[in-house]
Amino acid sequence: MASTVTLSLPSSAIQTSFLPRFNKKRSFNFVSNKLVSCRASNGNQNNQHSSSPNNRFDRRDVLLGLGSVYGASNLVSDPFALAAPIAAPDLDLCQKATVTSKTAPTIKVACCPPKSAKIIDFKPPKFSKMRYRPAAQLVDQEYLDKFTKAVELMKALPEDDPRSFMQQADVHCAYCNGGYDQVGFTDLELQIHFSWLFFPFHRLYLYFWERILGKLIDDPDFAIPFWNWDTPAGYALPAIYNDPKSTLYDEKRNANHLPPVLIDLDYAGVDEEMSKRDLIKSNLSLMYRQVVTNKTPSLFLGAAYRAGDAPAPGMGSIENVPHTPVHRWVGDPRQTYNEDMGNFYSAARDPVFFAHHANVDRMWPIWKSLPGKKRRDFTTTDWLDASFLFYDENANLVRAKVRDCLDTRPLGYEYQKVDLPWLKTKPAPRRPRKGKGQAKAAETSKTTVISNTFPIVLDKLVRIEVPRPKKSRTQLEKEDEEEVLVLQNIQLDRNVPVKFDVYINEEDGETPTEPADSEFAGSFTNLPRTQHSGGKKLDTKLTLPISELLEDLDAEGDDSIVVTLVPKLGKGQVSIGNIKIEYIRE
Ligand code: C2O
Q: Ligand 1 centroid vs 396 CA: distance in angstroms?
């Protein structure tokens, strides 16, 4: 028989330098030592130790349980770390990618580029006229004729021409699917997703793709279109990609998601029944969260990834959502590995990949243009001098650095200006703010499992209380340091599709928490990738900004938050090593 123990911790008992501070307003019912259900104690606010013998615990228990969610409150970078930018790969050492799946045989994919005796360093292009990348739903026939012609010519290039359509698609495969080791680090994969390399790599990749197309139709002003999935008029897969006779067509797409079906940016493998109104609200709220709420370079662009680092330190907000859900939504579930868009090795074989990534790319300058002094690029040379290799429009092998692509204008292009309706769609709290003098109305269902042991295997909804090292910070402090929730050592097989959602101070209600609610802090997503010889486990982290959420939820003064993790895709296939709150400057 499980005894139920209620703990009400006097704050004086745990105010030491190494112990977490608990929310004084909460009590815990220890149903067993592994599973804990949690209920707010509306009436029990006197913080007295009960005299019941069942109530005894020692510090060690606290440390082993909730204490393990606690860690250093500030990230101090290691002064002894030898930092260096990631170097462009050695094409001579490129190896085949291995595509695996839980349910299908492993296949080897050759996606290495042709070799070249000479590498030239990137120089900013000379141009007389700015190129404007148009929204795909707005282009006219003349533009479309040019674009389809250019892609036709690209597809007609000899197979071994590095500018040919398949060779270009394979660039993505090699950089994403373990084609390269990091120079000087055998068996340490070079990976351009899951880190701060995501935006610059894809920007340069699209740049060269566009230049090759322009050259093929002899129009140096040609600019590729973007899939405007951040506004309702652009939610459907752009019609220009859906004509079976067009060179932009790809039959390996989800047949249920062809125009006029509207995209769900929160897509996790299941088509939700939703009114158009709710869908728009959800999509716009997600965009607000990912672009507006994520205010620092590491939150938006991704985590630092330097020479010698293990791949996949952590995705930026946009890479996570909606970038990955859009891939998944387009990929064809009838194909073994969800080709084309649903797997990184094949994604760029679908021409719509480039329109999708153009919109991802478009978010970078938009993000930088919003108010906030931290909306800027990283300034460290470890990022600025990271480099990649691409073949240009003349089939020359070019080494380009991150610093070459910080701004689109020196590259000769900008995006067509269209509405940004999501700028005004800030999520709102599910329940009204608590009134003055009113007890916190938190009421968590008794049946909810709360895990207090790490690692947590996400096979069901998990709730956990996480202490906050600081509270009631001033506006200035908040501008200086963003409070973030960090899910550390998220481990999964690379080849499993995953999505789980993270809610803050969410309570069981009649309706599920949605992106339009303030409580919805973000999601973690994984698109299956092939494996690298170095291993198929992914070990990464998710960092979510919560300063703004806590203000909106009126929880800024609380000692802790309740974090709810909801597996949506890949149940039981993900484990989380630790959860804590940190304060970050960048
Ligand atoms: Cu390199 Cu959308 O993936």
A: 23
Using DSSP's 3-state secondary structure scheme, residue 504 falls into strand
* Rounded-to-integer distance, Cα 363 and Cα 73, Å: 31
- With tokens 């679908």, the residue in question is 350
Active site residue 357: yes
- Cis, bond preceding 238 (omega within 30 deg of 0): no
Checking if the pLDDT of 75 tops 90, the result is: no
Ligand 1 in reach of 328 Cβ (< 6 A): no
47 alpha carbon to ligand 1 midpoint, in Å? 51
pTM of the shown model: 0.84
* 344 assigned to active site: yes
3-state secondary structure (DSSP) of residue 566: strand
The one-character DSSP state at 358 is: H
**Ligand 1 contacts CB of residue 541 (under 6 A):** no
Contact indicator for 226, 137 with CB cutoff of 8 Å: no
Assess whether the C-beta atom of 327 lies below 6 angstroms from ligand 1: yes
* Structure token pair of residue 198: 């995501």
Question: pLDDT tens for residues 178-232?
Answer: 889 999 888 899 999 999 999 999 999 999 999 999 999 999 999 999 999 999 9
CA of 231 to the centre of ligand 1 (A): 21
Structure tokens at 296: 């620092």
Quick one: tokens of 170? 């394979």
- Strand partners for 386: none
Active site residue 172: yes
Among 184-193, 311-320, 323-332, 481-490, whose mean pLDDT is lowest? 184-193
Helical axes 165-176 vs 141-156, angle rounded to 10°: 80
DSSP secondary structure letters along 371-427: S-TT-S----HHHHT-EEEEE-TTS-EEEEEGGGGSSSGGGTEEEPP---GGGG---
The pLDDT score that the predictor gives to residue 432 is: 61
Residue 36: both structure tokens together: 């804990």
Q: Report the C-alpha gap between 129 and 132 in whole angstroms.
A: 9
Question: Which atom in ligand 1 lies closest to the alpha carbon of residue 198?
Answer: 1
**Atom nearest to 176 CA in ligand 1:** 1
Phi, psi of 463 (to 5 degrees): -120, 140
Residue nearest to atom 3 of ligand 1 (CA): 344
Alpha-carbon span 468 to 483, nearest angstrom:
9
* H or E, element range at 36: strand 35-40
Burial readout 358-391 (b: 16 or more C-beta within 10 A, e: otherwise): bbbbbbbeebeeeeeebbebbeeebbbebbbbbb
327 noted as active-site residue: yes
Of 33, 30, 32, 12, residue with least CA distance to 21: 12
Q: Rounded CA gap, 344 and 496, in Å?
A: 12
Helix (H, G, I), strand (E, B) or coil at 182: strand
